């Protein structure tokens, strides 16, 4: 009876341990409060401003993609069309005094005390001071207000961690930036404690107030947003629980909207005869003069268009939502009612090459040292999107040996260079980063383990990629998805070779297999060695469960098997 009771207790204890391990694996999101002025809030008053979702977008996607569980908190919420957690406490035009006491001209907007009543942040990203400069607030008053803000944050959470960002330079108030940043450094040092650390984050060094800001504005453009996001990222990671993924910070999750230039729309064909691409969906071709029910005709090269039966034809059901089927013949298509050109069709084409930027040579197919500054060249025929006042958005994918896809690459300056939605306007198109010689990938970085990497480019502008999805779940290569390039990082260098396998071979096929690398399903290029790999993020948890299961089995066997009797000296036996 004692044995059974012990066995039950042990098994119950082990099951409880398994439950605790599972709960720990799930984790609790860290509440991060972005607190500041217009740098934090951003603006969507104009189409151009609305295309800049602030550093919060890039930072959130970088952290989530790297496996960190975070939750932005704040009373405000932006209306950007990008998908990310948009809660924040950014208030455009607010000085440090307004953060503390509210805007007297808009009392309903509240102040720090009222905002904090609805949440308690674990970490605060404090970015203030620019508006104080604009308003002419004395430096000592600004610094005193920052100290009071720190105290209020601690009143809500005594162990809150506070990151104080320096003021980035701008084209207008450049002269006083260094003065206020020196003061912020003093305040951060004075307020720092072991239980509630206050850390200064340098958002200034390497930031150009002209090229990194929107034209005529103190707000960052995309380059500036990414630089600021990277500085916050580097300061945040040491404060966060360990990621469930590999340590390499990968970049942004795709938005659900098509990114366009401010002056054009890639789905609107502006004039008759313009180029469109086979596979594009939901185009508005009404400006070509084509009406609903019109028959479009295609004639073989050398055949003079006339009222004779065309060699191929299409019927336009809806000119404001017209899809060009994949496989549509290339060349001029005529409005058969008026016998005038409607548009010109081309098959899409996307390719990628790897470049040694120090020597400015194509290194695809060669062996290089891992320290070589690397960039990419996109070879596409999508430059015709400029006819629409827009640009084609092309994404570069890099899949590591474990099957994870990087949405950004680290250069030799430690910056992450994002690879999503690159605006392509020329052919060829050079893709560079923030590293030496314009490099975007330091293949010698310790984050990149030795092994085989697959690199490819793809575009889904106007859902064109989905038109090339085959019945077996793979995509036709060389159209909207490029033929992958294989990169092998080894001990002595990097081997680069183009794959030549047909689309039916797994080593050369981009499929719809899903990898939950960043919490969002993404298309993955699979090969024979990685097609069956499981997500590496669950490995430690599976290992723990396995060990516990083995322990239970051993206990059951050990406690239930017959025991050999111990023989006493007197020759009598007894059970122990």
Automatic annotation (TrEMBL):
The chain crosses the membrane at residues 539-559. Keywords: Membrane, Transmembrane, Transmembrane helix. The keyword Aminoacyl-tRNA synthetase does not apply. InterPro entries: DUF3821 (IPR024277), Ester_Hydrolysis_Enzymes (IPR051532), SGNH_hydro (IPR013830), SGNH_hydro_sf (IPR036514). Residues 272-466 form the DUF3821 domain. One of its GO terms (molecular function) is phosphatidylcholine lysophospholipase activity. Residues 35-224 form the SGNH hydrolase-type esterase domain. It comes from the Archaea. PANTHER family: CELLULOSE-BINDING PROTEIN, THIOESTERASE 1/PROTEASE 1/LYSOPHOSPHOLIPASE L1. This is Lipolytic protein G-D-S-L family. It comes from Methanosphaerula palustris (strain ATCC BAA-1556 / DSM 19958 / E1-9c). The lineage of its organism: Archaea, Methanobacteriati, Methanobacteriota, Stenosarchaea group, Methanomicrobia.
